[in-house]
Structures are given as structure tokens and as C-alpha cells.
Amino acid sequence: xxxxxxxxxxxxxxxxxxxxxxxxxxxxxxxxxxxxxxxxxxxxxxxxxxxxxxxxxxxxxxxxxxxxxxxxxxxxxxxxxxxxxxxxxxxxxxxxxxxxxxxxxxxxxxxxxxxxxxxxxxxxxxxxxxxxxxxxxxxxxxxxxxxxxxxxxxxxxxxxxxxxxxxxxxxxxxxxxxxxxxxxxxxxxxxxxxxxxxxxxxxxxxxxxxxxxxxxx
Amino acid sequence: xxxxxxxxxxxxxxxxxxxxxxxxxxxxxxxxxxxxxxxxxxxxxxxxxxxxxxxxxxxxxxxxxxxxxxxxxxxxxxxxxxxxxxxxxxxxxxxxxxxxxxxxxxxxxxxxxxxxxxxxxxxxxxxxxxxxxxxxxxxxxxxxxxxxxxxxxxxxxxxxxxxxxxxxxxxxxxxxxxxxxxxxxxxxxxxxxxxxxxxxxxxxxxxxxxxxxxxxxxxxxxxxxxxxxxxxxx
Lengths: 217, 234
Description:
The structure holds two protein chains of two kinds.
Chain A: H1 3-29, H2 45-48, H3 52-80, H4 86-108, H5 119-149, H6 157-173, H7 185-208, E1 213-216
Helix pairs in contact in A: 1-3, 1-7, 3-4, 4-5, 5-6, 5-7, 6-7
Chain B: H1 3-28, H2 37-40, H3 54-58, H4 61-83, H5 89-110, H6 123-153, H7 162-187, H8 193-212, H9 214-217, E1 221-224
Helix pairs in contact in B: 1-4, 1-8, 4-5, 5-6, 6-7, 6-8, 7-8
């Protein structure tokens, strides 16, 4: 496994795995409502990761995942540097990294007591994640589309196309993925699906980055 | 600056910044004494990450632990790359154990906050945090000592500054000295909280400096699309 593949894999496994483990522990301990959140929307991701052991798992795993997201965007920029101009690549990486920082800050302020949580900070951080990531992924997709014409081989392009189509459909059809303190069932469902598809976009780099290694020149 | 260099630099600057800001916020909130913890041992590093808002900032150490894990990955990959051969099994294990210790560090920080108060009602949580933090420090120090020893053994073959190897060896010896002092103090029954806390702060600083030393080693170590004939990973 190359370094690039390690980062792509860990970005997906750490984020999605943390959410899955958090939800399992939360429902087992009675701190989260049990349902299929992708269909029922009985709870949002935030509330599954606030109380008890689930809260510890969520904070540790998601904050760690944001570090891998930042490295993922660094690698993506380097991988595409021969096919796109520096400024647009820099902007793409900036949005992606800001999104990761938003998630980091939004997660870091979560505490078990709902009333003691700094919801303003959390909501802004979570929204910065979703909207920043949507902008960064869109820029990435458009630049990859152009780069392919110049010869960059992107084995996962079809998968990325499907994921972007679904993300934009959700954004347009449901007026965006915006996190709030109390979210409607519909918004919760969209949050779960959007998070999953963002994670899937990260893992598609596994097929693209087989040759991205660390080596002495 | 290459990615490994950024990792080395970040592994030094970021945790020190997080701890400094957390300590300042905790002092401002009246939760810790203002002193020189490297000399007076008045507070443990943990003390700066209990009360909010300092605890929010302290959680940034989770990012630092990820960086440390990446540092170990880079160190193993770099040794393989310069020597063009796989790591010896014991060093391979050392790198993996060091990375696992970083996971323990993440877990030790993830439980921190005002949810640990009052102390007598959350002893289990405190034991969990303390055990994992101690394991992280001990394991990281031992792994850095072993890495320094291996680099010293390879100094003729490795084409990088002798001062860098010397610095690593010195940092490793200082950590070994501190660990020895700590174990002796425990063995003869003179361990005090202040001594423990002084050692903790110095171990944190010395291990961060060890991570920083990679910055000068990894100038030519970068992301590349080079093909490799064999899959060799730490």
C-alpha cells in the first residue's frame, strides 16, 4: 500500500468508522436513539457523539480524522500540480483544509451536557465543514475533469462523478446541508447521507494514488 | 518544504502551542498556578486540559498525536528509502508500536474535560487517562531511544549530517536518564508529585525536539510517483 493509499483509506475508515462505532456504542448505552438514521432520521450525527463513552469515541476519532483530511488535500494538490494552475489548486486546498478545521473546532466544543455545549461554535464549525467541503470537492472534480484531458489518469473518475451528482442533488433538492441545534428529520437524513458520500469521495483516491509514495529523490 | 519536513515541524510546534495556550487559559481561569513547570513541577500537563475553555484547545493535542504517528511512518519509510532495503523486523515493530502508542495518546486526551470532575466520582476515568498517558510517554521515549541507536549504528551508511544523529542520540540519552531517575525514585520510595510532573514536562519537550530533528533529515524525502518493484511498507 502506498502512502497516498494509506491516507485515502484512513480518511474514510477513521471518519466513517468513528461515526459507526459511536452510534453503536451510543445505542447500546441508551444515549442515542436506535433506528436506521439514513432512512428514519431519528437522530443527527452530533447528538450520537455527545454523551458517555460514545462522546469520547466521537471526539477522539473525528478530531483525528480531520488531520487526515488535511493531509488528503495536500496530496490531492501535489498529485494535480502538473495539470492545473497554482492559484486554483491553492484555493481548492484552502477550502478543503478550512472545512477540516471547521469540523475540528465544531467537534472539540462538544460536551455531554447539552445546555453547556457551545452550540453557536459547533453549528458554525459543522456548517463550515459541509459547505467548505462541497466547494472544495466541486473544484477538485472540475479540475480533475480538465486534467484528464491533459493526460492525468484518474481510475476513480466515474465513481467521483456519481458521488458529486448525488451530493449536488441533495444540496439543491434539500436546500443544502445545513446543521442546526435542532434539525428536522429530513435535514438529519441528508446530513447522514452527505457525510457518507463525502467519506466515499475520500476513499476513491485509493484507486488514483497507487503510485503516490514517500521516497528520497 | 516537503511533506515529511512539515510533519516534523508540526510535530514540534503544534503540541507546544496547544499546551502553552491551554496552560495560559487555565491559569487565567484560576485553575492552575503560574510557575515554571520544567523546574518547579507545580502542575501536570493534564491540569491545563480539564476546565473549559482550555479543554477545548487541549483537544487539539489529538491532531498532534496523529502527526506523531505520521512522523513514525515517515521515519520508517525514509530509512527503507535511503537504504533501499526493508527495515529490520525489530525496527519495523518499533515503528508500529510507536504508532500504536499515539493511538493511546489520542484516547487519553479524548476523555478529558470537566466530565472528569469531581475527581473522587470519576476515578475510573482518571485511571484510564493516566494509564494511557503514561504508556504513551514511556513507549514513545523507548522507541525514540531505539530509533536513535539504530541511526547511530547506520551513521556510516546514512548520508545526512552527523550533528543530526548526535542530536538524536543526546535527546535519547536525556530521555533515558529521566526515565531512570523516575524508576529509581519509585523503587526507593522518594517519588513525589513534583518530581513526576517535572519529568513529564521534560519528556514531552525532549520527545518533541526528537520529532523536530526529522526536519533536517528529510529535505530530499518527498511525495513521488516513483515505481517500486516490491511493496515495502512500515
